[in-house]
């Protein structure tokens, strides 16, 4: 079937039963993540009473993804992707379940949190490349872009529902109950992946030892280094995470100091962002075949840059619109721009490298994009001591807009 003749991308995607199962597994997992993000953070603060430990735990959570992602890519290229996901999701579910049970019985100590967080993030670093690669085994190459964007929407919708119900779940089952529910979402996700029926070619032509392992890792690094377009896309994905870090770090200060509001507006902005991501993913999955990947990515960057700058200027709209309404709209369009950037990046990375090296390429991209988050957060913490929150947002918005135009100078990139 020709791409141009497609009438309903959604219906075409859902014809692939394996894709539908994977979509359901990811939806359930993301729902649990949203519930956990609220319950776990509150549990940590109750247990420690320390904002410093909250920040340190956030850093520990990011470390395994940065350290182990390249190595997990080698394993994913050698092992069954389906089995890696089943193992990783089940292991994460068990770790979270132990955490919830120990908190319920008042035997959880702060040092336990660091150990459990490290193990949980390590298992996530293992499964992340496998989850990225497995879509190439269940969808035709020309549908990966649409499938990826639709998955982004469904996952964001799961997060939105989880965030909306988190308060009710915590109020009904308590913090430990909410964490245990998240644990079972991981286990259920792993079980669903177990029902996938896919043919995998697992490489067994190399002896498994440290030397061959590092040879495989080197091969992946050299491949990425030699592909300029892949480097550009990885850089773009990393820059999105880096530039969006101030939104996460300074959002409470922005709401309190600029919008002169409380936690309820913080929630409204978060919902606006998720709705934007959900809507953007839906729209892109329908129109992606009409545009080049490079065009979508640049459009997304421009949308991010303009609206990032806009949220720094709510006071200018006092006489026309509510500053909160302006900020919420800007957050929505920032969210809309995220899949415009991330989906073409993901689609190009998944469809161009050879299948036997794909896990390593995906894991290297994951390492670079994850590294950008703490770097952006650290820079935000330092710079925010010298400039206002509005000034930080405006500067980041201008930087993103300028960065969006730079790839236009690369003719090879613009052909994609």
TrEMBL record:
Domain Major facilitator superfamily (MFS) profile: 1-201, 229-416
SUPFAM superfamilies: MFS general substrate transporter
Main location: membrane
Chain segments annotated as transmembrane: 52-72, 84-105, 165-196, 230-253, 265-284, 296-317, 323-345, 357-379, 391-409
Keywords recorded for this protein, A-Z: Cell membrane, Membrane, Transmembrane, Transmembrane helix, Transport
Superkingdom classification of source: Bacteria
Subcellular compartments: Cell membrane
Topology relative to the membrane: Multi-pass membrane protein
PANTHER family per record: INTEGRAL MEMBRANE EFFLUX PROTEIN-RELATED, MAJOR FACILITATOR SUPERFAMILY ASSOCIATED DOMAIN-CONTAINING PROTEIN
Name used for this protein in its record: MFS transporter
Gene source species: Clostridium malenominatum
